[in-house]
Amino acid sequence: MPRKSAKARREELAAGDPVMADLIERLGPLDFATRLRRRKEERPADAFGALLRSIVGQQISTKAARAIYLRTLDLYDGPPTPEATLELSEADLRGAGFSRRKVEYVHDLAARVVGGELELDRIETLGDEEVIEEISAVRGLGRWTAEIFLLFHLGRPDVISGGDLGIRRAIMIEDGLAAMPTPKEVEKRAERWRPNRSLASLYLWESLHAVPE
What we know:
Layout (H helix, E strand, L loop, with lengths): L5 H11 L1 H10 L4 H8 L7 H11 L4 H12 L8 H5 L3 H7 L3 H15 L13 H9 L6 H11 L11 H11 L7 H7 L7 H11 L6
């Protein structure tokens, strides 16, 4: 089956929901690469690097995550690898800005890849839920991290992260709700966006940063 064009996905999304139609009209054409550039977020091209970057960014601001990530890169001779990561001490990673808990997460990720428990070289062949299951087995990497990996690294077209605070807040604003919807309510709300929930996610995130002209 031919891959849908970005324009076709926008039109399909707009046709299924007037709220999305309004967002698309207000924000214009969007794509994930543009969002990353605007937010100055680095998403490494390799799977291990992408997951490492996700750990760095957990529960801190985009600005702080970028600074820590750049300091982390200085610890390596070249792109980060699982083997090189296992050679980094807690002091090395703490010096770059990692918490003790995140040091554990990074080392567990690297150990699972080196030991063959997490086969990143075949992860592209797995279905969305299989990817979530594999990544969630790593200490500190839950469903949200796996969904962000599906969205930004694997480019899967139909992913919604019901637990993402930005998405929940955007739905609250756009739907005129008194409170943020629960993750389950987000998933139910997103049914009408299938099979373009990833694109819907992008528009919801961008709606929080849009500046009226």
